[in-house]
Design goal:
Blueprint lengths: L5 E6 L7 H11 L5 E7 L2 H13 L3 E8 L2 E8 L6 H12 L10 E5 L9 H16 L7 E4 L14 H9 L3 E5 H6 L10 E3 L1 H10 L2 E3 L2
Parallel strand pairs: 1-2, 5-6, 5-9, 6-7, 7-8
Antiparallel strand pairs: 2-4, 3-4
Amino acid sequence: MDKFMERKWIDGRGLACPLPVVNAKKALAEFQGEGVLTVLVDNEIAVQNLQKFGKQKGIGVSGQKKSDREYEVTLQISGNQETLQGNAAQASQKEGCIPDSKRKGMVVALSANVMGNGEAKLGKALMKAFVFALTKQELLPETVICYNSGAHLTCQGSECLEDFKTLEAEGVQIVTCGTCLDFYGLKEKLSVGSVTNMYEIVELMEKAEVVIRP
């Protein structure tokens, strides 16, 4: 290994999914050329997620167990690979356009304030992680629709508020069902985005190229 190769370490121990991957992606994007990034994590799921991320991006990746609660994942950008930022810039130049952070025709529909069926506490944690992960995607949705108990997600007291505000700042349209806000007594507590109606919800879904329902 070239002794002049750039090296970075990040500590992902104690971080909930998907933070280890998000932080690794950010660190890799800062490399100017060849480089090695070592990520410390404390569970096998995080190792698997980082390995999958590396393979998807065409980055050399390996992992090893250091102790019962400590794992080390190494991601390497070699001489025949570009940084994540470089790949994005090259793609934009080839297309001859300014990169758009949103994917045209993508709608995310959140019909509940939990993700999946089962224990409510776990479902809320999963939904919080989903909305956070959404903010870290290379291509963001055009619109996020919240309805039924999903109306709680955009209202005062929601743990997802800052992430929704981040999405809105990036140009993502955030809309919440007015009937649902009324039903749950939340209309005065809406803290991000705007109120919508069922006609517009149907129209947005009908025109969408893809609708994501977690």
